[in-house]
Amino acid sequence: MLILPSLYWGSTEYYAHIIEHGEENCIIDIHEHFIKRSERNRTLLMTANGVLPVTVHLKKANRMQIPINEMEIDYSEKWDIQQMTAIRSAYRTSAYYDTLENDIMDIILSKQRNLLELNKLTFKFAAKWLGIDFSAIKESKAYVQCKDGDIDLRPKNSMGWEPMEEYFQLFSDRFPFTKNLSILDLIMAEGPQSRDILQRSISRFCGHCQ
User: Domain map of the chain by residue range?
Assistant: First the structure.
């Protein structure tokens, strides 16, 4: 079983793992404790000034041991408006920006009360473009205990994939290719070809491990 955290958009590696293992072998732990400064409420964009982390602001984020399904979003500083501005600035010249803009805006500006519900919307968006059957992925009914044979992506440093196939990234004239950015970066550039790139990356990973 592949044990997944609930992430905000999620990285290219996150979805490559799902495709590799198959949706029916995945479970999202919605009862794990929220981990600060992690992808649970942030994602990485490529901008003209380099990699930019963008974050969902949360209420009581400094409190310890709050299950992620209880984390509430704080809109007092209008992070959602700022984030749409950052995405527009970074990706407005990308191949699929015009196609994706309204859907992304609808998600970010949806004023979800709970982080988990916002993360689900970002997951469903990515799943649609990557040909992943969202409905086949299980959600936990309690904290998931990792068993022998399970692959656990919840630890903060559990993802560090090397063999990601390079795809076109904006600002490649300024910066070398950057692995494991937000899935938005890949879909903005490659659209319906995004899954093929992840599958070829999986093949490279499997060959790397042999």
Answer: 2-209
